[in-house]
Amino acid sequence: METINWSDFERVELRAGTILEVSDFPEARKPAYKLKVDFGPLGIKQSSAQITKHYSKAELPGRQIAGVVNFPKKQIANFMSEFLVTGFADENGDIVLTTIDKPVPNGSKLI
């Protein structure tokens, strides 16, 4: 594992956001949803997330997640992803979201 210093970590804009909308993403190579997430003063951003194994579309709106908002935009099929949804792979490689257990202001930075 490579060691980084504090200034490297500070460059990552890992922010809290609330999921507003979830839709299917049938054009994706692997099963995924399209998400619209409110990052407060940073605005509403969209991304795709391969989280269909553990989450239904109905249970995601209103949930706060952590996202990296300072990566460049990325084209995924016919969709432009504006941030990275964070999560951990379970024992089968399916993604479990990085979530926030108590409400914080949207746009808050991980410190």
Structural features, described:
This protein is mostly beta strands. The chain has a single domain (11-97), classed as Beta Barrel (OB fold (Dihydrolipoamide Acetyltransferase, E2P)). Helices cover 5% and strands 38% of the residues. It is built from one helix and nine strands, in the order H-E-E-E-E-E-E-E-E-E. The strands form three sheets. The protein has a five-stranded antiparallel β-sheet with strand order 3-2-1-4-7, with no helix packed on it. A two-stranded antiparallel sheet has the order 5-6. The chain has a two-stranded antiparallel ribbon with strand order 8-9. Strand 5 (74-76) and strand 6 form a beta hairpin. The longest helix is centred in the first third of the chain and has 5 residues, at 6-10. It is globular, with a radius of gyration of 14 Å. The mean pLDDT is 96.
Q: What is the chain-wise order of helices and strands?
A: HEEEEEEEEE
Shape: globular
Q: How far apart, in Å, are the first and last alpha carbons?
A: 22 Å
What is the CA-atom radius of gyration, in angstroms? 14 Å
Q: Which CATH-level-2 architecture?
A: Beta Barrel
What is the CATH third-level topology name?
OB fold (Dihydrolipoamide Acetyltransferase, E2P)
Uncertain residue segments: none
Question: Can you say what the CATH homologous superfamily is?
Answer: Nucleic acid-binding proteins
Find the count of extended strands (DSSP E, 2+ residues).
9
Oligomer: single chain
The residue-averaged pLDDT reads 96
* Beta-strand content estimate: 35-45%
Structural class: mainly beta
Query: Please, how many helices?
Result: 1
At the first level of CATH, what is the class? Answer: Mainly Beta
